[in-house]
Amino acid sequence: MSEIIPKVFRINTGSCNGCDVEFVATAFVDKFHIESLGVELVEDVKDSNLLVITGPLTAKSEPFLKKYLNQMKKPFVVVGVGTCSVSCGIFRDSYAINGPLDKFVEVDVNVAGCPPRPQSIAEGIAKGVKVLNQKMHGEVTPKKIDTIFQDFSAPQTFRGKMALHEGMCTGCRTCETVCPSTAIKISKTDDGFTHNIWHNSCCYCGNCAYFCPTGAIHSTNNFDTAKLSNHKYTDINIAHIEYETCTKCQEKFMPPSRGLLGKAYVHDDVNKLNAKICPSCRKEANFKRMYA
Ligand code: SF4
Ligand code: SF4
Ligand code: SF4
C-alpha cells in the first residue's frame, strides 16, 4: 500500500479574502492542530493532491480553475471553503459569478461559514484527507476530529448556525425577505407551513434574528460546518408549524406568537383566549370586550 502524503494547495476563485485569512490562521497557527493531520502546504499545484478553494467561482477565474485541476496529482480531493464556494452565498445570481464550485468540479468536502472558523476548516481538511485515503485504498468513511472541537468553544455573542423556536414563529416571512443569501424558505402546506434554514447558504449576518418580530429565529454557537459533499442539501433546519383550529368558528388559522400576544394583551386571561381563536373571532371578541 503506497503511502499518501496529502499536499495542500489553495486557490482563490473570487473570495472576498475573508476565507483566505481564516485559512492562513488554520495553516499557520499551531493550536489548530493542522500539522497533526500530516498535511504539507505546497507552493506548486503540480505537487498537490488536496485542493482548497475559497470563493464562489467568478467567470474570470473559471478557466484558471480548470487549468489548475488539470495539473494536479491524481487522485486528488477538493475542499470548498466558505459559503460562497458551496452555494455562492451573498454573491448568488451576480452577473460575475459562474459558481457554485460543484457546477464545474467534483467537490468532496464543503466547509460552510462566512468565513468558517479555523477549526471548521481544519475539520474540512481532515475529512479531505480521509476521502483521499478512500480514493487511493477504498478505506472507511471519514469521521470528525473530536479534539479540534473539544478544545475550543465559541466566544460569547458568536454568530453560528441559525435555529428556530417553533412555538414563537408566526410565518410572517420577514426573515425570508431580509435574508441576503436566500437561505430561508417558508412554504405553505395543507395543515400549516414549513420554515427551512439552509445552513450552506447562510452567511451568518444575523439579519433574520434582528428583524424577527417575535424573537423566534436566533443564532447558536454551533460552528461545526465541515460536511461531505453529499450533505450539501441535507444540512437544513426544518420546522413544521401546524395551523390551529379556532375554538369558536372551527376555522384553521396561523397560530399567533405567544410572545406577541403577551405584548399586545397584558391580561393573562385575554392572552390565553386570543391564542385559541382565529383573527376574525379575535377582532369580534376584543370589540365586545372593549365596547359591550
Ligand atoms: S464565504 Fe464570506 S468570507 Fe468567505 S469569501 Fe465568501 S463572502 Fe468572503
Ligand atoms: S422566524 Fe420570525 S421573521 Fe421568520 S417567519 Fe417566523 S416570526 Fe416571522
Ligand atoms: S443569518 Fe439569517 S438573514 Fe443572515 S444569511 Fe443566515 S439565514 Fe439569512
Distance N to C terminus = 88 Å
- So what's the CATH class of the largest domain? Alpha Beta
Mean pLDDT score, rounded?
A: 88
Count of all domains? 3
User: What structural class results from the helix and strand content?
Assistant: alpha/beta
Q: In percent terms, what proportion of residues is strand?
A: 15-25%
**Helix content, binned percent:** 25-40%
The outline comes out as: elongated
N-to-C SSE string, H for helix and E for strand: EHEEHEHEHHEHEEHEEEEEHHH
Under the CATH scheme, which architecture of the largest domain would be assigned?
3-Layer(aba) Sandwich
Q: Uncertain runs with pLDDT below 50, 5 residues or more?
A: none
Quick one: biggest sheet?
A: 6 strands, mixed
Task: Please give the number of β-strands.
Answer: 13
Which strand order does the major sheet show? 2-1-3-4-5-10
